[in-house]
From TrEMBL:
<dbReference type="InterPro" id="IPR001753">
    <property type="entry name" value="Enoyl-CoA_hydra/iso"/>
</dbReference>
<dbReference type="GO" id="GO:0003824">
    <property type="term" value="F:catalytic activity"/>
</dbReference>
<protein>
    <submittedName>
        <fullName>Enoyl-CoA hydratase/carnithine racemase</fullName>
    </submittedName>
</protein>
<comment type="similarity">
    <text>Belongs to the enoyl-CoA hydratase/isomerase family.</text>
</comment>
<dbReference type="Pfam" id="PF00378">
    <property type="entry name" value="ECH_1"/>
</dbReference>
<dbReference type="InterPro" id="IPR029045">
    <property type="entry name" value="ClpP/crotonase-like_dom_sf"/>
</dbReference>
Length: 279
């Protein structure tokens, strides 16, 4: 009988190098830290990184040497929104690119939840958009100046790519609707009061505390860690299956018929997107 050749997972050395332009990865004693960044500083949103994230979650999740994952940002910002990514109106994107954007937007969150079988810790290191990457983690901590801000409705687009979905699940439909329509800042203390995060810390204490929590989690047996994560993440799996595709389709349909485009509307709130004027 011919022995079958099994195709193993990608090694840490390979995928950490592959995604280093968008994600800086370090690993120690089974704990992998993944930091969003652009040129070594705060991450500035781009479609290239948007695509890379979903692939990275898959590679990280398939590596059996990863036992706990920490997701954080770099410097004093979590994510800097960039209106210029909409320099070409979505309405004018080629049909194939629109389809690819739909699938990639789904995978960005789906792969984080369905491909990662280990405990996860989100450490929001400052203001910025796309906080759903951290709130989908098992444990979420943040700095005092974090800004859980969903810019979509204020930018003239339905909020369908994940932030509202996570808020609906965490704080309820009525409160989530209020924050979606008003775009009101949810700072660290408010996020703690609402139950979005579990701890609020000064920035210099954030990552050390994330590692402390990860090391505490590592004290349990491996099967306990993996199966506990499976239980804890199940509500997110249910929410994504039930509503993510529905919400995203509504957002992208509206973008596809938007003759004005989002660029000028987003430029008007550029201070918020850059992590400024977040009163």
């Amino acid at each position: 009988m011919t022995e079958r050749r099994m195709i193993g997972p990608t090694k840490f050395e390979e995928y950490s190098e592959k995604y280093k332009e968008f994600l800086l990865m370090t690993r120690r004693d089974g704990i992998i830290e993944v930091r969003l960044h652009t040129d070594g500083g705060p991450y500035k949103h781009s479609w290239e990184a948007h695509t890379a994230w979903s692939h990275a979650w898959s590679d990280i999740g398939r590596d059996p040497e990863n036992e706990v994952m920490i997701i954080s940002g770099t410097g004093d910002k979590w994510v800097i929104g960039d209106p210029e990514v909409w320099n070409t109106k979505f309405m004018d994107w080629p049909k194939q690119k629109k389809l690819e954007q739909y699938h990639e937007s789904l995978r960005l969150l789906e792969n984080l939840i369905f491909c990662i079988d280990i405990p996860t810790i989100g450490a929001v290191n400052g203001p910025g958009t796309h906080c759903e990457l951290a709130t989908l983690c098992d444990i979420t901590i943040c700095t005092e100046d974090a800004d859980f801000f969903d810019p979509h409705y204020l930018g003239g687009t339905p909020p369908g790519d994940g932030m509202l979905l996570t808020l609906q699940s965490m704080i309820g439909f009525k409160k989530a609707a209020y924050y979606a329509y008003t775009g009101k800042n949810i700072n660290g203390q408010t996020a703690l009061d609402l139950g979005i995060v579990s701890e609020v810390l000064p920035r210099e204490q954030l990552l050390p505390r994330a590692w402390e929590l990860a090391e505490m989690i590592m004290q349990a047996p491996r099967s306990t860690r993996h199966l506990s994560h499976s239980i804890i993440s199940r509500p997110w799996k249910q929410a994504l299956v039930s509503d993510q595709g529905f919400q995203l389709a509504h957002q992208m349909y509206d973008m596809a018929i938007d003759e004005e485009g989002a660029l000028e509307r987003l430029k008007k709130m550029q201070g918020r997107l850059m992590g400024k004027d977040v009163q």
